[in-house]
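Students often ask why we bother encoding 3D structure as a string. The short answer is that it lets us treat folding as translation between two languages. Here is a chain of 230 residues written in the first language.
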Amino acid sequence: MGSIQILVVEDEETILELIAYHLKKEGFRVTCVASGEEALRKVRNEEYGLVLLDLMLPDIDGLEVCRSIRKHPSTAHLPVMMVTAKGEESDIVAGLELGADDYMVKPFSPRVLVARVKALQRRRRKSDGDTQVPLEIHDISIHPGRHEVIVKGEHVDLTNMEFKVLYFLASQPAWVFTRYQIVEGARGENYPVTDRSIDVLITGLRKKLGDAGEYIETVRGVGYRFREEA
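And here it is in the second language, the structure alphabet:
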């Protein structure tokens, strides 16, 4: 696990050196950059197993970097962990909706950071080993391999998190899940998401699905389920 190459994007030199030191100590190979533009050049020309990304960068902000990573075919599935001082719920929601795989708020413990990096790699390997088959339910077609959702013949553009939540719910119709069960099922355990974050995500997902969004039902006092019958 420790042999993967990690790209650290951070413009504060002391924090950059701290992160790099502890990752190298655990056997990871580390490349450091201080700007969003340089980060995008690196990920498009070199191979990485993970990007640790600050949000407040001097040129392109971290959210835009994450958005660009997710949009480019060659980097769409590259794991991204945001490490930032922006810890408001709205910041976390924005990062997750853009497809971040984890979100860590400064100041942080280097040991916890390394543990989260290792946990993310374990989840990624488990996810890569899982067989996710395409789903056809009601008038929705979901294809994990192509990261594609089609509703009534029309393509629907979803973020990474929205796609995983939709697939998780649709693959188990009629079953009721709490918000944290949805997070664990879609992204792995101990993900830093609040109840409010999931409600916001579900609202956005329903809106993008149009009329098909009605298949995602709210179960008052419990959570959500995907309707079994149209």
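Translate back mentally: The radius of gyration is 18 Å. Keep this in mind for the problem set.
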